[in-house]
Amino acid sequence: MTRKDLNIIAIGERFDPYVETFPEGCHYNYDISGHWIYYLYQNPTEEEISSIQSGEIDFGLYVRGPILFLLHKFGDMNWNDSSYSWWLVSDEFRAIPDRTEGHASIKTILIDSETGLVKAMRACTLSQEFTVYLHDTIRMQTQQSWNRELHEEAVHYIYSRYSTQNLVDMAEIFCKGGE
After folding, report:
1. Each residue of 119-177: pLDDT tens digit?
2. Which of 26, 79, 136, 146 could form a disulfide with 87 if both were Cys (CB 3.0 to 4.6 A apart)?
3. How far apart (Å, rounded) are the C-alpha atoms in residues 28 and 84?
4. Distance between CA 18 and CA 142 in Å, rounded?
5. Residue 64: enclosing H or E segment and its boundaries?
6. Residues of the domain holding 40
7. Nearest one of 177, 178, 158 to 81, comparing CA atoms
8. In a domain, 6, yes or no
9. With contact defined as beta carbons under 8 Å apart, do 22 and 111 qualify?
10. Domain tally, the chain
């Protein structure tokens, strides 16, 4: 998912005025608008809404070859993971992260996948150490050759063998949101 416009995102409003429903899932993206996590849940519970809005946040990063898996846990929710490749971002929105950025900001949006309505939003920073590691990993992706089919096979391989908790257990680095 990529923010393609400058529409204001507000709780209770449609995330995208042209899209009513979304497939369920959880996605991480880095593009010209920064770092984003999108939770797309059908009829999010009050616990999920409150966890995104005000729960403690934990992040982790697991890297396997050219693929990174951003791990994230909000409040009382279980850990979630999102695979990411710089090559999957459309050319017009690709950005190479600045290695010198101190504490990257990451925005999170919880969207009701059935209605397209924003249910919760949150922004926080990542620790400097985590920011450097994440940005270096993305920068590394830009230097490697790319093949969509091999990428999809590699992601499928990881997901067929490891649970999200396994990825958390194998993560190279962690930080708390707001560090």
Report:
1. 999 999 999 999 999 999 999 999 999 999 999 999 999 999 999 999 999 999 999 99
2. 146
3. 7
4. 31
5. strand 57-64
6. 25-176
7. 158
8. no
9. yes
10. 1
